[in-house]
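Researcher: Checking consistency across runs. Here is Pirin C-terminal domain-containing protein again:
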Amino acid sequence: MVLAGTVLLNGSQVRPAAEMACLSSEGQGLRVEENSDAKLLLAGEPIDEPVEGYAPFVLNSTEEIAESIAAFNRGDFGRM
């Protein structure tokens, strides 16, 4: 996930801030180049299950994301 700035992944995919990139487990490696003052969150092990993302929500399906957004809007996640 790109937290700030933009990056190139493997020389071609430009990713803006707040966008997540899912990469396959195949291949020899990953090359990351920053285009500006980039901040990245990188993590690792393959989880072998579907992944869907929308805004700050990352779950297994669009249905789960919709349920989580509804729960968030109801205040089920608490207040900050």
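Researcher: Does this match what you'd expect to see?
Model: One thing to look at in this run: The chain has one helix and seven strands.
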